[in-house]
Every structure is written in structure tokens, then in C-alpha cells.
Amino acid sequence: MPNKFIKFLMGACVAVSMHALAVENILVAVKTDLGAFVIEVYPKAAPATVQNFLVYVDAKFYDGTIFHRIVPGFVVQGGGMTVDFAEKKTRNPVVNESVNGLKNDYQSVAMARQSEPDSATAQFYVNLQNNAALNATEVKPGYTVFGKVVAGMDVIEKIAQEPRGMYRAFPEAPNYAVRILSAERIDANHLRELVEAQKAPKSSSIKDALVPINEPQQ
Prior knowledge:
- By secondary structure, the protein is of the alpha+beta class.
- The protein has one domain (about 10-200): Cyclophilin (Beta Barrel), CATH 2.40.100.
- Helix content is about 25%, strand content about 20%.
- The chain has 5 helices and 8 strands, in the order αββαβββββαβαα.
- An 8-stranded antiparallel beta sheet has the order 3-4-6-5-7-2-1-8, sandwiched between helices.
- The longest helix has 22 residues, at about 5-25.
- It starts with a helix and ends in a 9-residue tail after the last helix.
């Protein structure tokens, strides 16, 4: 099969996939101090949880909140506290939907909660590995997975590497706040633009601040 025809087929498949993504799935772009990532949510699997999450997104609730809990090799959690560690007032808790076939695997996004199964409100987390212990079993409910990071997982990994330990009351919080600058719904075209923008090399202003060396003395 000619190479040109193979390339045409591959391009067509990508186009169809992006179109399907735009039609069937809901995407949320989360911009942070360290870059942006995109969550694809699954309303068919977790209808109440996705509706709850999108209400917070549309209300700009997450804007200005921080990632207050980082456990390398486990999860990155945020969406409920401000930079001074004040908890934002939330809506009523959402019903637990952890028995939905979605697993707490690497890149998946789930709702944080208290020991009470139906206690999740606004805080969410991204799994940094396959965390089977967080899944539902026959004898206990788990933590509801409702989406997946489909772009920008490198940003999540970057957040996970932030130094911690400065705050005694919040030992798992980054020493310097990593904020959610904005969270908003996007379409597939915006997703493509965001991915391309993050791939582009970024100029640094550090060189402009450096004192030149080996300059002749006046």
C-alpha cells in the first residue's frame, strides 16, 4: 500500500476521532501555575458526579483554588482550598458512583471524600499510578472515577514533584502554592490548540536577568 495512502488513512482516523470526541465527550481544561491539563469526563458512567463537577466548573468555583495534597506515586489532589488553606463553601455532597466500571488507574480523575461514601463535594484527585485499593469491592464502596486526563499529564507529574513540608498543618501541600487559574469547558478544536501550544518551546526571561561575564572592565 503506497505511503501516501497510509498517511491519508491515518489522518482521516485522527480527524474522525477528534470529531467523535467533540460530539460525544465533555472536555474541561484546567490551567495551573505550572501549565494546563485537560480532563475528559464520562457522564454515562458517573452522571451525578459529572453533573456536580461541571456545576463547579461553570460557576468558576475552582478558579483560585490550589492543589493542597501531593503524594508522589499516589495522587495529586485539589479543588477545595484557597492559597491560605481556607476551605471554600461547597454544594451538598454527591451520591457515590464508584460501582460504574471505571477504575482508579493512572491518569484517571476521581472525587475525594471523607469516610462516608456519599460525602464527595468539590475536591478531586488525579491518580499517579494504578490505585486498586481505591476501587469499589463487593463489600465496600470506593472512590468515584468520573474522568481521565487526556492531555497535559506531564503537568500533573510536574505538580507531583513540587517540594513539600513547609507547612506543619499541611505537610503534603507544596511549599509554594500551585493554583488552578481557571477551569472551563472546551471543544476538540480548543484541545488541539492547547496541546500544540504546550508543545511549542517557551522563551525564558532568565537570560535577560543574567549579569554578563568576561566583559572588558571599564
